[in-house]
Structure formats: C-alpha cells, structure tokens
Amino acid sequence: MPNYYQPEIECASQEQIRAWQDERLVKTVHHVYEHVPYYRNLMVQKGVTPEDIHGVDDLHKLPFLTKDDLRDAYPYGLLAVPKRDAVRIQSTSGTTGRRVVAFYTQHDLDLWEDCCARAIVAAGGSNEDVVHVCYGYGLFTGGPGLNGGSHKVGSLTLPMSSGNTDRQIQFMVDLGSTILCCTPSYAAYLAETICERGLQNQIKLKAGIFGAEAWSEEMRQDIQNKLGIKAYDIYGLTEISGPGVSFECSEQTGMHINEDHFIAEIIDPQTGEVLPEGEKGELVFTSITKEAFPLIRYRTRDICVLSRKKCSCGRTHVKMSKPMGRSDDMLIVKGVNVFPSQIETVLLNKGYPANYQIVVSRVNNSDQLDVQVEMTPEMFSDTVTEVASKEKELVDALKAMLGIYANVKLVAPKSIARSEGKAVRIIDNRKLY
Ligand code: DLL
C-alpha cells in the first residue's frame, strides 16, 4: 500500500475527527490571538476571547475573514510567525491590487504536500508512477503543490510547468507519464491534440488530477474517453494552502476535505448564517494545523454542498460537491481570476462608456472571453480600419491587465441592453454546473 494512504486518519471515526478538530481549533485560536494583532482586533470587535472557544461548537462565535481582510493586511499583517520562521510565499493569480499572498513554514509545506500526496494516492498513484505536472510553477500553488505531493508519494516527478504542448506530449510519450496533473481545460486541449496526432496508443496515462477551475461532468467524460484515463477533481485555494484542500477518490462523486487540517462550514452568503449539511451555500474554511498563515472562518465565495454520506472508498472525511459558482463576481477564465471591474477600468481609462458585456464561452473545450464594448457616438463614423485598430488597442490593454487574451468587438452606440436594476455585465455560457 502506498505510504500516503493513511486510513487511521482518512477513515477515522466521526468522533475521532471531531476530537482532533476541537483540540486543534482551540490551539489555533490562541496562536492567532497571541501573534496576529489584526485577528486580535477582529475578535475584540466581536467580543470574543480565546477562552470562549472550547471546540467546533463554538466556531460560529468567531468573526469571518474575507479577501478584503487579506488585502487590508497585505503583505505581512496576517503572518502568525516571525518572518525568519517562514520559508515560502505563494500568491493568487489575481493581478495588481487583487493579489493575495500566503506564507508557509517548513511544517506548513509538509502538511500541504501531505494533502497533495493523499490526492495522488486517491487517484491510484504510488512510487511506480511517473507524475507529469503541467500546472504552472512559481507563485501559483498548482505546480509546487502537486510536485511536493508527488515526491512524498515517491513517484517519479516531471516538473513540466504549463505551455509548450509539443514538448509536453513528447515527454509524455518518451518518459511514459502515468498521471497527468493540470487544469481540466489544458487536459482537454492535450487530449484533443493527442487524438489529432493519433498518439493515443503511445501514451501510458492512467489517471489525471485536474482542478483550479470549474469543469463539468461532460468535460470529465470527454477527457476520460479521449485519453483512456480516470479523471479526478482536486480543489484548493492559495489562502488555505493551495491544491489538496480536498480531492476526489475512486467514487468520483465529490471531494473529501482533509478534515484533520481544515474545518469546513457552509453559510448563507447573504446573512452569514451557518447552514445544515446538505444545503447549498458559501464554503468557509478554518485551517487548524498551520503555523505561518492560519485563517479562521475564511469565506471562499465558492458555492457548494457538503455531504457526510458513506463513501465506497472507505474515507470518512466530509465531501464537498464541485463548486457551483461564486458568490462574488470573480470569473475564472482559463484558470485565471478575472474581475469585471478590471475590464471596466481598462475601458473607462481608454475613454469608452461603461456599456459593455462580457461573454464567456467554452469553445473546443477551452474558455473564450469576448468583450463587447459600445463605441462613443463620435467613433461611430470611424472607418472599418480605424475601428479595427481601436479593437486591437483594447485587446492589448486587456491582455496587460488580465494576463489573458480577450476578443474585443466594438458595437454601435446604445446597442447593449440597459438594465433598470443592477447591470448584467456577464454572460457565462459555459454550462458548467
Ligand atoms: O487554483 C489552487 C489549485 C491549484 C487547486 C491546482 C487545484 C489544482 P487559486 O488560484 O487561489 O488556487 O484559486 C482558487 O479556484 O476559490 C475556486 O473558485 C477555484 N477552484 C480551485 N479548484 C477548483 C475546482 C488554486 N476543482 C479558486 N473546481 C477557488 C472548481 C476550483 N473551482
């Protein structure tokens, strides 16, 4: 049995899981109260002290933490250990002004990699495997997380990073990669290319671990069929460590949350009220084993459902459904976080009116971002060449802001429907949920 299958933890009784969580939560609350003035202030404002917290039943007494808090406290305001004890920084994919940084001690890195190792083992990985990691490396947590997990499992690890599809496929064939780790949209692209080149019989892949963005069951089937593999979902977010917060097992019906490290709650995103198991709401995490960057009641904005239904794999940790959307307006396009406000900033800076529509679609299994922008009445008399050059200028400015390509179409003044209430800026045609 691979070393990172840990039945004593992953298949522990509910009582045992609760006992770990009670003890670790109390410890973490004391840790942040003593070492992070920002937390202390939040707790004082809510009239709660560490002495009020005896276990998970008291969790609701603690204040929520949001992305705004992380931005307010940027860069070091939530660091809970002396800087000399932290060894790593990772960051979210947001652009300037939206970035969030997370810190890790060596202990935190070990725990994170353990979580990713569990995900690899749940996908059938062992030291017999060649794990091909084409999540991005660097500030993004995907590459480093799965890389570390693969090392822990003892698999032969290929740190490919993203891009250069020809080389990915060449190495996959030459080195006999057996487990592929990347975003589902890149997996779909790789699958399509492999099929087009008729290389299906030359690859040895048996499983894929795909996450970092939403993907549908249809996409799973498509990738599984094209590559002849089992495709497993993996979830995580930079703030809570990165990939491996939860992962799918052989049942492929939701992701087990590593409950010995994270407490999950589902809340009503409007009222903040904690919802009972089985109800759909916003996922909130409390990390209970981290040293450098423990977050308490962090609102992920991801909407999903939790389930404690018995799982055929034997794991007892609670399962979360695939996220069904986000309670804020963040779009994830090609794995990159896109905020409509960023697009608006570019348009307004370039002298366009705030009449625009963002359309996200899935074309050939890849995300496509279209932005329709109304011209000013003056521009309406421009020649076709002038319009084309203005569109190109906007494409470049959006690329600089978002880091990804968006198609831009300038449309006639007043042609985008007005709304009497909140403007509907986003049309997401990706039928993901
Ligand atoms: O995407 C970490 C990760 C890397 C997860 C590799 C899985 C694999 P961030 O860039 O901070 O971190 O983005 C986190 O991505 O709040 C979700 O909205 C979304 N997300 C992550 N995994 C999934 C998934 C990484 N499996 C944000 N399904 C989260 C749907 C996902 N959405």
Give the key terms.
single chain, 433 residues, alpha/beta, 4-stranded mixed β-sheet, 23% strand, globular, binds 5'-O-[hydroxy(phenylacetyl)phosphoryl]adenosine
Helix content: 25-40%
SS class = alpha/beta
Return the average pLDDT rounded to an integer. Answer: 92
Task: Write down how many β-strands occur, each being a DSSP E stretch of 2 or more residues.
Answer: 20
For the CA atoms, what is the radius of gyration?
23 Å
Helix count equals: 11
Report the sheet-strand fraction: 15-25%
Q: What would the principal axes of the Cα set say about the shape?
A: globular
Tell me about the biggest sheet? 9 strands, mixed
What are the distinct ligands in this entry?
5'-O-[hydroxy(phenylacetyl)phosphoryl]adenosine
Catalogue the unreliable spans.
Answer: none
> Strands of the biggest beta sheet: in what spatial order?
4-3-5-6-7-8-9-14-13
Straight-line distance between termini: 35 Å
